[in-house]
């Protein structure tokens, strides 16, 4: 019995990816289908009960993965699934700056026809107002995003430099 319990605990911990590696992968995920599939595979074991940041990255992986679906219906279904998961994650943790950054990164890059662009100003404002409060590691990660983001002008990027 102890062996079975130990094995179950090991599997559950082994199945949860670490946030540092997910962050590293996220910056390159949209560059190719292979990157998107690797990212999606790494997050496949994440459930709604896990760390909400990981759940948000899983939602992003579903949204990004939808781009590579062959059939339009599958593409739309997958996109809706990812957007719904991301929105529910934000609803559960509305003051999480990293989850807001994930949504902003998705919304600034999806086609307008999706209708999923309505929170860009809100998330940009939240990130700008709460950036200074973050840990050094998170600030560095956010800074990398802000400096390449389409949503921030050169002048607006100054707070992160």
What keywords describe this structure?
161 residues, mainly alpha, globular, disordered N terminus
Summarize the structure.
The chain is mainly alpha-helical. The chain has helices spanning 2-14, 19-26, 33-43, 52-66, 72-92, 97-107, 120-130, 136-148. It contains 8 helices and no strands.
Explained architecture:
The protein is mainly alpha-helical. Helix content is 64%, strand content 0%. The chain is globular. The protein starts with a helix and ends in a 13-residue tail after the last helix.
Q: What layout of secondary structure does this protein have?
A:
Elements: H1 2-14, H2 19-26, H3 33-43, H4 52-66, H5 72-92, H6 97-107, H7 120-130, H8 136-148
**Gross morphology:** globular
Largest sheet: number of strands, sense, barrel closure: none
Distance from first to last alpha carbon: 55 Å
**How does the helix and strand content classify structurally?**
mainly alpha
Instruction: Supply the number of helical segments.
Output: 8
